[in-house]
Amino acid sequence: MRQINLKDIVPDLEGRLKKLNTLRKVFMVLALLIIPAVPAMIVLAKYGACMQLCHAVQAVKLKGKMPIFMLFAFASNEREAAQKLIDTGNLAGYRIVGDVMIVRDDIAMTDEEAWEEAAPYFNAAAAINMGMTADNMPECYKKIIEIQQRKEKELAEGTAEYGQCPSCGAPVKSVDSEFCDKCGTRL
Ligand SMILES: [Zn+2]
């Protein structure tokens, strides 16, 4: 299974990215003169890894919450990597909920809500492609698959709910409903 290199997660990733970018430029100039190929490749690899982590941090900050698997694509140590982003201060003021979502501290969320929110984004096929099996799959993904299966069943049976009527609170049973079945309010 793919692993995130936890050593890449250090405090102030943005600052590190800037330094690596400067170093990268220096090596690009040096490469024209003496071709220090191996150190240049190391710098480029570090720069790439650091940039990916910075993008992950930005994505989380933009939305305030994000399934961890969307950041680290089912890497086997993705929860550890997410926790380290928090612990190193890159995502200060965030926490992990239900083992699956990174959530800003001011946003309330229970474990069950985290699984519900992550379920539409969870792709079991992608997880399996990354080496996950029924045996090594984390509990939270089993919960999410249960939710997905429940929703599929509800769709098949026509009992799925698409929110509530803003007027009377009755469940809306179809994506295409224009009016509430119960009180007739336009939706
Ligand atoms: Zn209604």
Task: Please sum up the structure shown.
The protein contains seven helices and three strands, in the order H-H-E-H-H-E-E-H-H-H. With 187 residues, the chain is mainly alpha-helical. Helix 1 (13-33) packs antiparallel against helix 2.
How would you describe the overall organization of this protein?
51% of the residues lie in helices and 6% in strands. It has a domain at 6-109. It is elongated, with a radius of gyration of 22 Å. The longest helix has 27 residues, at 37-63. Strands 1-3-2 form a 3-stranded antiparallel beta sheet, with helices on both faces. The termini are far apart. The chain has 187 residues and is mainly α.
Spell out the blueprint of helices and strands:
Blueprint: H1 13-33, H2 37-63, E1 65-67, H3 68-72, H4 78-87, E2 94-97, E3 101-104, H5 111-118, H6 124-129, H7 139-157
Antiparallel strand pairs: 1-3, 2-3
The structure holds zinc ion (ZN).
Largest sheet: 3 strands, antiparallel
Radius of gyration: 22 Å
Mean pLDDT: 88
Shape: elongated
Number of strands: 3
Tag the structure with descriptive keywords.
187 residues, 51% helix, binds zinc ion, single chain, mainly alpha
